[in-house]
């Protein structure tokens, strides 16, 4: 409630009290001094009181919007994605779009097939749809077609020939979408029809500067435009564009003004090809991709496909929390990779990279240990993308290598006592969940020390646990004894994970001990 104090005979109002009740109280406090003849202002049926309540209501709303405007004016306090996007564009930082998962397919045909087939960009495969869960589409995305000569492959015991390692990415290719016709004016903008466009940071080795290819066509003369981070360093004779993505994941192609970037000539048709999709839904399990969606040459041969290893690298669009935390490091690096911190900051800006550690393995070699989104191994697609991304950021003699993270399973077995009035199964599940929380992927880091005391602490806080005795605490394989120091030290390229074995997969193996000791 607002308080009005008398200072030197004059009222002083607390202007920070701007909610409905405070404003109404403050106005009523002024009535005896300003309108002493009005005595019914506390009566709910009084017309004047109704007006006071309306004024307080409007003041409360205006105060809310004033606070929102103040909050959105600063990067540290902004809560709107649109505001964060606009703030970070001032330092040349664009929030990352979703990233597609990548997988490698095994293509199998009957032994009688000896033909040669070509897999081209846009050939599509998918997982099987389920009730409430649509299928996930994967496509071959490389510009160079892949040729498979099945006649050179051996016949296995099941009378089939198998070609391994066809790289695919989650998403859908949109070909030659007409965006409009240029009117010859400066700073023209054209919106892409489909949302959730897939963008990777522009690099010198990517076709058209990324995953969006924009072409202008004037009387049969076609010009391919190159996507840049910004037009600030472009020139009048350079066919450069930028792609801006708004808070609703809709992308817009922005051309230059004739000084910073060329203007598409009047009458030119503007066509774009791009891919849409991305997200963690693409990190499908091994064996999930089994359907030929749009690969007619393989279908005619009676081919089947599957992914022997789970897909990885699929990530949701960059959150505003991650951007606010991460953008200053990218800005300080000046988009140049010199120190290990620069390499890590820039690599984390590449969508599909969840965790990364940069290590100088030789005087001119930097090795990036990368854990992709969805965990797992680094796909060929992600590795090629990262190397191309660093091509114009590394120093001239520097060599960038990409390596897989060494995932270290932590095996923990605990004996617990359960209080008599609790359900055993529920207490065991809660203890396992608490242990799994300690090894959750987004909580672990490279070179981390895993402490036995944390497992005791988490387990003992579970309601219904009478006592805890951890009898196994080790890494790599089950059966390890408890280290006397109660610690497990991890290397610079190692990340702790929950084991995949059935007894440990929930976080730890739990054995319930009766209070009688049986």
Question: How would you describe what is shown here?
Answer:
The structure is a single chain. The protein has 518 residues and is of the alpha+beta class. It has 5 domains: 4-72, no CATH class; 102-171 and 279-306, no CATH class; 173-276, Immunoglobulin-like; 320-404, ANL, C-terminal domain (GMP Synthetase, Chain A, domain 3); 407-512, no CATH class. 21% of the residues lie in helices and 31% in strands. It is built from 9 helices and 26 strands. The strands form 7 sheets. It has a 7-stranded mixed sheet, with no helix packed on it. Strand 1 (4-7) and strand 2 form a beta hairpin. The chain is globular, with a radius of gyration of 31 Å. The N and C termini lie far apart (62 Å).
List the helices and strands and how they pair.
Layout lengths: L3 E4 L2 E4 L6 H15 L12 H26 L8 H9 L12 E9 L5 E4 L4 E4 L9 E3 L6 E4 L10 E11 L1 E10 L7 E3 L21 E6 L2 E7 L12 E6 L5 E4 L14 E8 L12 E6 L1 H4 L4 E3 L13 H13 L7 H9 L4 E10 L2 E8 L7 H10 L9 E6 L1 E13 L5 H15 L10 E3 H9 L4 E11 L11 E3 L4 E4 L11 E4 L6
Parallel strand pairs: 12-13, 19-20, 21-25, 21-26
Antiparallel strand pairs: 1-2, 3-8, 3-17, 4-7, 5-6, 5-16, 6-8, 9-15, 10-14, 11-12, 11-15, 13-14, 18-19, 21-23, 22-24
Helix pairs in contact: 1-2, 3-5, 5-6, 8-9
